[in-house]
Amino acid sequence: MSEPMADVRDMYMAHRMFRREFRLLPQLVRDVRPGDTERASLVADHADKICAILDAHHEGEDEVIWPLLLARGGERSAAIVPVMEKQHHGIHEALTTVSSLFPAWRATARGGEELAAGTDALVDRLVEHMAMEEAEILPLAKQYVTAAEWAQFGEHAFSTVPKKTLALGFGMVMYEGDAEVIKEVLSNAPFVPRLVMPRLGPRLYASHAKRVYGTATPPRLGK
């Protein structure tokens, strides 16, 4: 009996979350009134969290998925994986630029337009990358990565992201997530997260969104 291969539907779900949260970020920055350091700190904390989740996500791809595809995927993988790696590098550079601007803005709530422009550039790179990944990488992953190996990729986030941020991130994913896919993802999680996440994640995100967006139900951007 052949080993089951990766169910990549959770990647589409994660991408939907990243598209939503990062596309909303530049306007969050622009809407902060000059000098309103309390609001700037709140938005900066939100940005720190989604950036940390994105970093862990990409690190997992770098460490788990790319080597498997390069070893098994032949010419198609050999052509596209270096492009993915280059895009990751570009996204990391954009994240570094944005991160370098946040401390001064957090402290003064001034210089927001430069920061917002930096987040716009980050969003452009991220959206381009995710679209290419969905078109080129996920079909390869379904063919060459086993379900057990794909689960290892998911476990990377559980082991690297701080637990409270991880629970919030899971709530962010669940906000536009498919219930069947969420159940499947949790089936591979350790016992405590599997038990707690379905209830805790949505509550954390609703509370967080109310503070950040002014509503527990921010715009659903979908794809």
Assembly category: single chain
Q: Helices and strands: which structural class? A: mainly alpha
Which parts are unreliable, with pLDDT below 50 for 5 consecutive residues or more?
none
CATH level-two architecture = Up-down Bundle
Q: What pattern of helices and strands is seen along the backbone?
A: HHHHHHHH
Number of strands: 0
Globally, the shape reads globular
In percent terms, what proportion of residues is strand? under 5%
Question: What portion of residues is helical?
Answer: over 70%
Quick one: biggest sheet? none
The level 1 CATH classification is Mainly Alpha
Q: Kindly report the average pLDDT value.
A: 92
N- to C-terminal distance: 36 Å
Number of domains: 1
What is the CATH topology assignment? Answer: Four Helix Bundle (Hemerythrin (Met), subunit A)
How many helical elements?
Answer: 8
Rg from C-alpha positions? 18 Å
Describe this structure in words.
Helices cover 83% and strands 0% of the residues. It has 223 residues and is mainly α. The protein is globular and about 60 Å long. The protein has eight helices and no strands. It has a single domain, classed as Four Helix Bundle (Hemerythrin (Met), subunit A) (Up-down Bundle), CATH 1.20.120. Helix 2 (37-72) runs antiparallel to helix 5, helix 3 (74-108) runs antiparallel to helix 4 (112-144) and helix 6 (163-175) packs across helix 8 (191-213).
Concise description?
With 223 residues, the protein is mainly alpha-helical. 83% of the residues lie in helices and 0% in strands.
Task: Supply the key terms.
223 residues, mainly alpha, Four Helix Bundle (Hemerythrin (Met), subunit A), globular
